[in-house]
Write a structure and sequence with these properties.
- Helices cover 20% and strands 41% of the residues.
- By secondary structure, it is α/β, with parallel strands linked by helices.
- It has one domain.
- The strands form two sheets. Strands 2, 3, 5, 7, 9, 11, 13, 14, 16 and 18 form a ten-stranded mixed β-sheet that branches. The protein has a nine-stranded mixed β-sheet with strand order 1-4-6-8-10-12-15-17-19, with helices on one face.
- The longest helix has 21 residues, at 369-389.
């Protein structure tokens, strides 16, 4: 019997139009237009963990993109100004890879532009605490010129209903630390996409600290685009009952002889506390000599929390120095507690000492003594509140 040519043609046509999922992290679609992204259903991997009902309006809804007042510390070698969204620096670090980020991008009226140009290390603190409860969009560009040295700290407090984009651009030889601290009120919603472009012989230290808010999602994408570019990416989070904190760091090794270290640590306590960490490292086909390692550690302090931790590593060249990843989630180390208690320390104090020691490694990487001391106090306050509430 002769083959059914019509049926064969239909099979071929069906195969040709079949959906093919994204095969590598670098293939993820990107656009500044909301319409270029499919509607979010919650079944997508990028959105599968987050409580979508709480933040859906930030993805699809209308956002107020007008400038919001802020305060900042004057610092030699730095400049802060509002610029138009058509400014040449806007888009130089990256563009949105999800619908929420694109909604913010297309909604803002002005962009806050920060320049670090001094070769003597300077610290600039920007305090953002006036967003209110209306849905808002924001956009920042932090630019370190060639051979500049400095630290930019973004502090967040109060109420918020915010989705934003933060761009970080390092010129050749620049040494820049960017710290974002989320100590929002308990009802705050905050979606933040960070894009970083690191130039030749430049080093970016990127630190995320999330302690307050209802739903907080801060996702950095760091692109090492020139030879000898380097990044150290740190994260610290402490989730209480009902809080949701998410971080999805992406390190893109584009050029040869680049280096990255990713180290995130979190503690969780209370019913419904939920944290998500998804670490992506891509070593591209031209990234010979790459040296990369990522890890995430979670300490569960009570019954009821959930920590999702997913490391991913893609390697497209065989000529690398090294690459690896690690992930762990667990309860207190009984031997540590026993050792401390055998020295006359109460169980409650022993537990606080273990948590402080666990998180201190990240706090000490910030490089700002005043901020490090304040965050240590905030962690201690979290632990004392849990102890008073009898959380175990």
């Amino acid at each position: 019997m002769a083959p059914d040519s019509t049926a064969t043609a239909e099979v071929v046509a069906s195969t040709a139009t079949a959906f093919v999922p994204v095969q590598t992290r670098s293939e993820r679609p990107s656009s500044t237009s909301v319409e270029d992204f499919e509607a979010v259903t919650g079944r997508e991997f990028e959105w599968k963990f987050i409580p979508l009902d709480k933040i859906k309006h930030l993805i699809d809804g209308e956002l107020d993109g007008s400038p919001v007042a802020f305060t900042y510390s004057e610092s030699t070698g730095t400049a802060v100004e509002w610029v138009d969204r058509t400014h040449a620096s806007v888009g130089s670090a990256g563009i949105p890879e999800d619908r929420a980020s694109a909604n913010a991008w297309s909604s803002v009226e002005k962009v806050l532009h920060v320049t670090v140009s001094g070769e003597e290390s300077a610290e600039l603190v920007i305090r953002r605490d006036r967003f209110g409860t209306e849905p808002r969009a924001a956009h920042l560009v932090i630019e370190a010129t060639a051979n500049a040295h400095g630290t930019v700290i973004l502090e967040h407090y109060g109420e918020a209903n915010l989705t934003e984009n933060v761009e970080i651009v390092l010129g050749d030889g620049a040494q820049l630390t960017v710290v974002t601290v989320q100590e929002w009120d308990d009802t705050a919603l905050h979606l933040s996409s960070h894009f970083a472009r690191v130039g030749r012989d430049a080093t970016l230290r990127h630190v995320i600290v999330s302690l307050g808010g209802d739903v907080v999602r801060v996702n950095p994408a760091i692109h090492l685009v020139e030879q000898n570019a380097s990044t150290d990416a740190f994260g610290l989070y402490f989730a209480d009952a009902g809080q949701y904190f998410e971080q999805r760091p992406y390190i893109d090794h584009v050029a040869a002889n680049t280096r990255s270290r990713v180290n995130y640590k979190g503690a969780l306590q209370g019913q419904g506390a939920h944290t998500v960490w998804v670490g992506d490292v891509l070593i591209g086909p031209h990234a010979d000599g790459t040296d990369s390692y990522e890890q995430n550690r979670n300490l569960v302090l009570s019954e009821g929390p959930r920590a999702d931790s997913i490391p991913n590593l893609e390697i497209e060249t065989g000529n690398i120095v090294g690459a690896g990843h690690a992930s762990s989630t667990g309860r207190f180390d009984d031997e540590q507690l026993f050792y401390l208690q055998s020295r006359g320390i109460s169980e409650e104090e022993a537990r606080r000492l273990v948590v402080r020691g666990f998180l201190a490694e990240i706090i000490q990487q910030i490089g700002s003594p005043a901020l490090e001391a304040r965050l240590s106090e905030s962690i201690e306050a979290e632990l004392l509140r849990a102890q008073a509430a009898g959380v175990r």
